[in-house]
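Predict structure. Chain length: 103.
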Amino acid sequence: MNTTFESAVVTVQDKTIAVVSVQPTVFQNSFNASTIIKGLLPVFKGMPVVLMTLDPQGKPAYFGRSDLILLLETINIKEAEWKEVSAVVDLTNSCPMKEEQEE
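Prediction complete.
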C-alpha cells in the first residue's frame, strides 16, 4: 500500500539529506521513529533520512542522526523545495505499533 508524505532533499555542507515531515506524535517513541527512518531508506536510495515536525510555535524539530540534525539547524528548512511523495514504505514486522493494532 502506498503512503503519501511530504519530503525535501537538501544539501548542506556537501551532505545530501532527505528530510521527511511527520506528525509530532511520531517523536514520542524513538524506536518507532527509528523504524520509520529505516523504512524510508529504500525510498531515498540509501540517502540519510531525518524526520522533521513543527513544534507549536512553528519551529522545526528533528529526529535522526545528531550530525545531520546539526547541519539542518544551520538552514531555514521552510525554504527547502518540499514535494509530496507517494511510495511503498514497509514497516511490517518491525513496527510494534502496527503489531499491536493487528491483535
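Summary: DSSP finds three helices and five strands in the chain.
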